[in-house]
Write a structure and sequence with these properties.
Layout lengths: L5 E5 L2 E5 L2 H14 L1 H5 L3 E6 L1 H8 L2 H9 L2 E4 L2 H9 L10 H15 L3 E6 L2 H14 L4 E6 L9 H13 L4 E5 L4 H9 L7 E4 L3 H6 L7 H5 L4 H7 L1 H25 L1
Parallel strand pairs: 3-4, 3-8, 5-6, 5-7, 7-8
Antiparallel strand pairs: 1-2
Helix pairs in contact: 1-6, 3-4, 3-13, 4-9, 5-13, 12-13
């Protein structure tokens, strides 16, 4: 893959990093112009943050999914801190929102590309459909699918989802089912997906529609994007900040000492 990004091993994971816009431009260029990628099965992207790291320690399939992703990006201030602790070079986060917005800008400029949204509620998906038509008029939203809200899907439910996606001949599949379910879903089904690119982007569906507000850019710049979200959704996010983050940082420190 020849995009404008660098690689770094952090706690056993190979992370792709660089300036967000340059990174996405590199991914887009590869997907559109690299014949080797176009002949292979669906290429996909996942995000690594301290919480996903901590969860993957106890979930072998989630760990395998993160290892399998064609691009694994540093989505979290803790990742940047751990890289510094270990003498690495990751200096900028790349978030799911960065991927979503910049990829759509490039797709809109190219024209004629097709996207599918999997996840969230019918209400949110309807808002996405309407908003995309205004923000990115040269992109075709060829399908949406709101799966049942449950931990696992039956073979029949999986067949229905995959058939719905493949029937549209979409180029890009956005999956917003929260971690680790979304990453494991792509990992298990990627060989059956007839799309060029898929990305597990979690809460971005809600950010894009405005149903959940992203933290102010000042908080994002300071690496404290989590703080306003924790205040808004304490029951959902407390575990990430007070259990997962310490586990991650302790492992980063131990790894540095061992090295």
């Amino acid at each position: 893959m020849n995009g404008e990004f660098m690689k770094e091993i952090l706690l056993g994971y190979q992370l792709d990093h660089g300036a967000p816009d340059d990174f996405v431009a590199g991914v887009f260029h590869d997907l559109m112009n690299n014949p080797d990628l176009q002949r292979r099965s669906c290429q996909w992207l996942a995000c690594l943050n301290p919480h996903s790291y901590a969860v993957a320690k106890g979930d072998a399939q989630f760990n395998a999914a993160l290892m399998d992703a064609d691009w694994l990006i540093p989505d979290g201030a803790g990742i940047l801190l751990a890289s510094r602790i270990q003498g690495g070079n990751i200096r900028e986060r790349i978030t799911g929102s960065d991927i979503f917005w910049q990829m759509h800008k490039l797709m809109d400029r190219a024209g004629g590309l097709r996207v599918f949204f999997l996840g969230s509620t019918e209400e949110t998906l309807t808002l996405i459909y309407s908003k995309m038509a205004v923000d990115f008029p040269n992109i075709q939203v060829v399908g949406t699918y709101s799966p049942p809200f449950k931990p696992e899907y039956s073979p029949q439910e999986l067949d229905e989802m995959i058939d719905a996606i493949n029937a549209t001949q979409a180029d890009v599949l956005w999956v917003g089912m929260t971690a680790p379910k979304q990453e494991k879903w792509i990992y298990v089904n990627r060989e059956r997906l007839e799309v060029r690119f898929a990305a597990a982007i979690g809460a971005v569906f809600d950010f894009y529609t405005g149903r959940v507000k992203r933290s102010h850019p000042v908080f994002q710049w300071l690496g404290l994007e989590w703080l306003p979200r924790l205040v808004q959704q304490p029951r959902r996010l407390w575990r990430r900040m007070f259990i997962s983050a310490p586990i991650f940082l302790w492992d980063a420190v131990k790894s540095h000492k061992a090295g």
